[in-house]
Each structure stands twice: as C-alpha cells, then as structure tokens.
Predict the 3D structure of the following.
Amino acid sequence: MAEAIELEFGESSGWLIVSFRGIINLLIRDQLSQEVIVELEKRPGCNLVFDLSEVTAIDSSGLGAIFGLYKYLAERQLSLALAAPNHDIEVLLKLTHLDKVIRIEKSLETITG
C-alpha cells in the first residue's frame, strides 16, 4: 500500500511551487507525479519548482520521478528547478549529475523572484 503525501501547491512569477515534507521514494513517486501533472495541466505554460526545504531524503525512485517530470516539462519547452535541498540531497544530485540538467538553487526566492 502506498503512503499518502500531502502536497502543497502555490504559484509565483510563472512557477508552480510544490512543497511537502518527508522522503521522496517508491511509496510516493506515482502520487507525486500524478498530482503534479494535474496541477501543471491547470496552469498551461507554468514552470515547476520543488521546494525541498522539508524533504529529508530522496531514493532512486524519487530521482526517477523528478527526472520524469523534467522530461514532461522539457517536451513542453518548460523548466524544472529544485530549491533548498539539504546537504545530503545536494550531494546526491551532484553524484547523479542531475545538477547538470536541472537547475538547483539554495533558496526558493532565487528562482521565483
């Protein structure tokens, strides 16, 4: 049985902001992807930013979900950014070279202005 997560959505300066607490893993990846895509479809032309300030860890399934959303957005000529990852997540993103593909910033305000 999948864990339920509570995603919070906001919008600022053409960015859909997704915030939540906990771990991005196999148990929540499908729900995460589905709910985010539903919200993006309500906002055509909106870029996506994940506020990772309350995310404690990401596993390989979570990375796959993030990359899947990156591809979804890239097909529509839109952007994905990650904001405020903790040190461990930042190291993981660098080790997997996702930092070369996805914009990563220390704060949400840097992205949304």
Observations:
- Residues 20-112 form a domain with the Transcription Regulator spoIIAA fold (CATH 3.30.750.24).
